[in-house]
Amino acid sequence: MDKERIEFLKKDYIQGFPAYCGFEVDRVEYGIFETRLNIRQEHTQQDGFVHAGVIATMADHTGGYAAYTTVSENFRILTIEFKINYFKPAVGDVIVCRSEVINKGKKIIASESQVFSISQDQEKLVSKAMVTLMAVPVSAFT
Fold first, then answer.
1. Taking every annotated instance into account, which residue ranges of this chain make up the domain Thioesterase (predicted)?
2. Hey, CA dihedral for 133, 134, 135, 140, is it positive or negative?
3. What integer pLDDT is reported at residue 121 of this predicted model?
4. For the chain, which domains are there?
């Protein structure tokens, strides 16, 4: 990928609901996308842990953009299925999502997203998601 494509993906990722949540992009490479979220009070649930919906959104969206790095600008990526496991509550100052394409077909792409909470410079794996996506031609949207 060239620098223009990387900059496009970084900006494109942070729109709409992900922008509202406060997601930030840390790393973009072919088949890899990494993001972070500085935890705010509004990201938590009644017990003070990061809400499962925030984690699921981050895992899905970041996995989608890992897939998006593998197609041309003539395609868009849509989630067709995802499954998520939660291992422990996410607490701390930051959560980080690391997503990687694990299988790329012509139309169907599978990404794996791992979400870590970071507290006092210690990372803990809190969740893992499998995201199945479809590469859809831009022309299908016009």
1. 48-119
2. negative
3. 87
4. 3-141 (3.10.129.10)
